[in-house]
Amino acid sequence: MDAGHRDLLARMFEAAVDAAQPARRIPLYLPEPPKGRTVVIGFGKASAAMAQALERAWPGPLTGLVVTRYGYAVPCERIRIVEAAHPVPDAAGLQAARAMLETVQGLGPDDLVICLVSGGGSVLLPLPGAGIALEDKQAINRALLACGASITEMNCVRRHLSRIKGGRLAAACHPARVVNLLISDVPGDDPVDIASGPTVGDATTCQDALAIVRRYGIALPPGARALLESGLGESVKPDDPRLAKVTTHLIASPQMALEAAAEVARAAGVTPLILGDSIEGEAREVAKVMAGIALQARRHGQPAGAPCVLLSGGETTVTLRGGGRGGRNVEFLLALGIALNGAPSIHAVAADTDGVDGAEEVAGAFLAPDTLARAWAAGMPPRDSLDENDAHTFFGRLGDALVTGPTLTNVNDFRAILVT
């Protein structure tokens, strides 16, 4: 890949991540201090960075507990930070969820709970419903990740198998005032889908969750099936009086990140086209559509002539069929490369803004017109890698992986296709 093109793509990704940094966003949404106590709770990949930003900006005393992904903790003085596993929950997350419920017990009407929520919080805060073991939740989570379900579908199931999600944590805070500060990593930015909505009301039902389970043929353990079929796993609804003092603010979103990347493109003399901030679907199928748009731009100057960049966000899915390392962004990128088939003057990047694509400590990768030719020369048939869901290995061996480490934020996937 031409160094100039890669540098521009990297700078657009960096701008997208920087726009969603908690240190920038948290101070803009601070509530008025209460007469009583201020308790901070939080969960998600960005929650520790959010807690640190809150501590630095808050004018009075506070205490709290936040759970984030292993490797994502940052120093805090008054808020306790714990780490747990993602994308499959572990015992540390279970202990944190129990401790969080205890943290909000006994609050009064003059107290304030500031809830810091970001993507990944659903897995980081596992508290199985009655009759469900942590091992059951782990197995269900793996099945949901592998079956191709959307994030909305996955979170619907998670909410109804939990004792803390789907508004239950907010209900436990009653009668205190609750202020949610959310960084969205979900298509559409619906608060109930960000970390499975522990502190917002949920209009979906146990029957909705059962329908999703049947749709994807997921085998439920007996306790989980009984919880859904009996209706005992029902979530807290939006009109529940215990949620009357809950307010929610979206402080960072995929759209904000795309707009920041677009500014970088304009400054470089490249026309940005934001195609959507909530694009979903099978990664390899979305890639075919994006390839068609890129080729139309190169050949016919539509919807814009070169130089232009096609920007998009959202969360694609991967149905695992092979034995590779997965990763929806790199799978998208490899499928894009196959569809473009070495078309000249088209370069791309696809990466997760949290720095982790799938279960790998790799954010994503870069694509160039010569990527497929270099792969063939290295003895890696591109289609074989795609069939094996092994795009991480593919781009890693080519030296085209994008490794950032923890970014301390999460506004979902970022895709940029540069037509020069």
Automatic annotation (TrEMBL):
User: Which Gene3D superfamilies does the UniProt entry name for this protein?
Assistant: Glycerate kinase, MOFRL-like N-terminal domain (3.40.50.10180), MOFRL domain (3.40.1480.10)
Q: Start and end of every MOFRL-associated domain?
A: 9-229
MOFRL domain boundaries: 308-413
Q: Reply yes or no: does the keyword Membrane apply.
A: no
Q: Which Pfam families match?
A: DUF4147 (PF13660), MOFRL (PF05161)
Q: Which UniProt keywords apply?
A: Kinase, Transferase
- State the Gene Ontology terms under molecular function: kinase activity
The record's annotation in InterPro entries points to: GK-like_C_sf, GK_N_sf, MOFRL, MOFRL_assoc_dom, MOFRL_protein
Q: Does the keyword Lyase apply?
A: no
| PANTHER family, A to Z | GLYCERATE KINASE (PTHR12227:SF0)
**What is the scientific name of the source organism?**
Massilia haematophila
Q: Give the protein name, as stated in the record.
A: Glycerate kinase
